[in-house]
């Protein structure tokens, strides 16, 4: 009997197993709202911090210039043009035109023109859009509250002092300038002051350091002078107190000598006076 050839692959099943592999959907780590366990999100920092910093420092000049021009145009338009009046005018013209088209179309076509172009389903605002809007409002309110607390609790002394100066200037300007002029002035300063500072940062910082050093020197001189006068006045007060105490003691002793009966005037037990 001849040996049969050995088939090494006779009992091997090459059918791939039924494995259900589900790939996990990857998320963009740089997308808003993504938070990893290794780098937790800082609740005191919002995306408005970087947005306003990039805008007011003119990191993107074209975008910042467009925002600056748009804000000025909006303020001037709101002052010189009665926007509310024109809004009502546009509303009544639109309603009158649609009503006229509907009324004139019914005798000719049986249905009005507006009925013919009416959509089968009216447009609605998706819930996701509203959630995005409310999320942005929430982030902006947090930005305002956080920055106000940083100014109040003097996280940066320069920022707090600058806020004080601008508030004081605004307090006096309100008496002489209308609100729209103040808004235009604030808008111009908001877009120009950071740019001027960045372009002349070394010179401005040098003058600020000089002024700070001069103010510190004046404060130190005033403090040393106050300490000197305080020491002099304390020494004089101590001398006056010692003199007054000595005088009071001497007066008290003299009064005791006057009021205390002498030994010669004290009567003896047999009724005679001793001399």
TrEMBL record:
Q: What does the record give as the organism's lineage?
A: Eukaryota, Fungi, Dikarya, Ascomycota, Pezizomycotina
Sorted alphabetically, the keyword list is:
Endoplasmic reticulum, Membrane, Transmembrane, Transmembrane helix
Q: Give the signal sequence positions.
A: none
Region of interest: Disordered: 256-275
Compositional bias of kind Polar residues: 265-275
Location relative to the cell: Endoplasmic reticulum membrane
Q: What does the record say about its membrane topology? A: Multi-pass membrane protein
> What residue ranges carry the coiled-coil annotation?
none
Q: What is its main location?
A: endoplasmic reticulum
Top-rank lineage group of the source organism:
Eukaryota
**Which InterPro entries does the UniProt record give?**
Reticulon
Whether Iron counts among this entry's keywords is: no
Q: What is this protein called?
A: Reticulon-like protein
Single GO cellular component term: endoplasmic reticulum membrane
Q: Which organism is it from?
A: Orbilia ellipsospora
Bilayer-crossing residues are 65-84, 151-173, 179-198
Chain ranges of the Reticulon domain: 52-240
